[in-house]
Amino acid sequence: MASVELHDVRKVYGGSITAIHGVDVEIPDGEFVVLVGPSGCGKSTLLRMIAGLEDITGGEVRIGAKRVNELPAKDRDIAMVFQSYALYPHMTVRENMGFSLRLRKAPKDEIDRGVANAAQILGLTPYLDRLPRHLSGGQRQRVAMGRAIVRNPQVFLFDEPLSNLDAKLRVQMRTELKALHQRLKTTSIYVTHDQVEAMTLADRIVVLHDGKVEQIGAPLDLYDRPANQFVAGFIGSPAMNFLGGTVRRSNGAAAVAMVDGTRLPLPAGAKGGDGQQVVYGVRPEHLALGDSGMGFPLVVSVVEPTGADTLVFGTVGGSEVCAVFDERHAFKPGETVHLAPKGDRVHVFNADDGAAL
Ligand code: ADP
């Protein structure tokens, strides 16, 4: 087990395409960190640089306090799990899992013990003599993880390992992965574009956008206190609602006034000076039904009952807004309902650069 440190890490492809602009992250020993961001933000590039599969253009990667920039992948003592599983089709589960130890010329009894232990942890013992093609997708992914566990590496690197699984299996494997980390406590770096996976798995999340770090924090810190509009919109599902307007303060009360005159109430203590252009952010689950005269009016367009809750879509001052309610509602399209933010769960962002105020 080891810490992983990235100091001003940069990546330029082909002399001109800057994929990573100078990333600093310190991952203590045993932590589970998720790199998350939209497609093309640079998360795979960053992971591949840590793995040694991609040259590092600038900055420094340290594993266990040792600089590894010049160290070949095979000498970094890491194990990587890919989306594609990358299993050898002609080898049994046992042979696939023991392969890296065989390459290292480990004694047979050590290989047998390592494979048996990983198989037991992952529930693969009954399948050790099967070929990958006779396994389900979830079982294949478990073999890929088993292969990583057998190596007993300093660091696990995961590159979207659950993307090929169907929705139900993804959730199940996600839970298994978390339980596995709680048991092995091996430093883990996990790449995904799926913010729910990031929220549920991570000790800390690194949100990437256009090759830069937008924010690093514990999942609920990012949810409660996003540093900017990008993180606010990326973390949470359905996504946070954003409404543009101007801060208006009078007689101790504050609101954001939209161009059509709709007034969005600001809680006491909300930042933003009178006349400042801002973006008002409120999560769908933080909207409650109010009486007319309270909050702001939503003109309903679509109601989606999921069984567990009700999603209501509509417009506020001409902008799209979504609200989620625990209770069931059968609003009609065109109907006006009144919404008010719960407590002080409102976010205000600078309209110019999206920074949280
Ligand atoms: P992500 O994993 O977040 O989807 P990537 O790390 O794959 O993003 O890519 C980051 C950026 O680097 C993208 O703009 C991508 O087009 C570019 N890129 C990735 N690999 C190469 C490559 N081999 N050559 C040139 N550009 C690349």
Task: Report what the structure shows.
The protein is of the alpha+beta class. The protein folds into two domains: 4-234, Rossmann fold, CATH 3.40.50.300; 241-350, OB fold (Dihydrolipoamide Acetyltransferase, E2P) (Beta Barrel). It is built from eight helices and 20 strands. The strands form four sheets. A six-stranded mixed β-sheet has the order 6-7-8-3-9-10, sandwiched between helices. Helix 3 (108-122) packs across helix 4 (137-150). The chain is elongated and about 80 Å long. The mean pLDDT is 94. The site of adenosine-5'-diphosphate has 12 residues, from strand 2 and helix 1.
Helices and strands, with pairings:
Blueprint: E1 4-13, E2 17-27, E3 32-36, H1 43-51, E4 58-63, E5 66-67, E6 78-82, H2 93-103, H3 108-122, H4 137-150, E7 155-159, H5 167-184, E8 187-192, H6 195-201, E9 204-209, E10 212-217, H7 219-224, H8 229-234, E11 241-250, E12 253-257, E13 263-265, E14 277-282, E15 287-290, E16 296-305, E17 310-316, E18 319-325, E19 336-341, E20 347-350
Parallel strand pairs: 3-8, 3-9, 6-7, 7-8
Antiparallel strand pairs: 1-2, 1-4, 4-5, 9-10, 11-12, 11-14, 12-13, 14-20, 15-19, 16-17, 16-19, 17-18
Helix pairs in contact: 2-3, 2-4, 3-4
The chain binds adenosine-5'-diphosphate (ADP).
Count of alpha/pi helices: 8
Give the N-to-C terminal Cα separation.
39 Å
Q: Compute the number of strand runs.
A: 20
Low-confidence stretches: none
**Which range best describes the helical content: under 10%, 10-25%, 25-40%, 40-55%, 55-70% or over 70%?**
10-25%
Percent of sequence in beta strands = 25-35%
Sheet with the most strands, sense and barrel status:
6 strands, mixed
Number of domain units = 2
- Which outline best applies? elongated
Write down the CATH topology of the largest domain.
Rossmann fold
- Mean pLDDT, all residues: 94
Q: Classify the secondary structure makeup into a structural class.
A: alpha+beta
The ligands found in this model are: adenosine-5'-diphosphate
**Known CATH architecture of the largest domain:** 3-Layer(aba) Sandwich
Q: What is the radius of gyration computed over CA atoms, rounded to a whole number of angstroms?
A: 24 Å
Q: What series of H and E elements makes up the topology?
A: EEEHEEEHHHEHEHEEHHEEEEEEEEEE
CATH 4th-level superfamily of the largest domain:
P-loop containing nucleotide triphosphate hydrolases
Output the strand order for the largest sheet: 6-7-8-3-9-10
Under CATH at level 1, the class of the largest domain stands as Alpha Beta
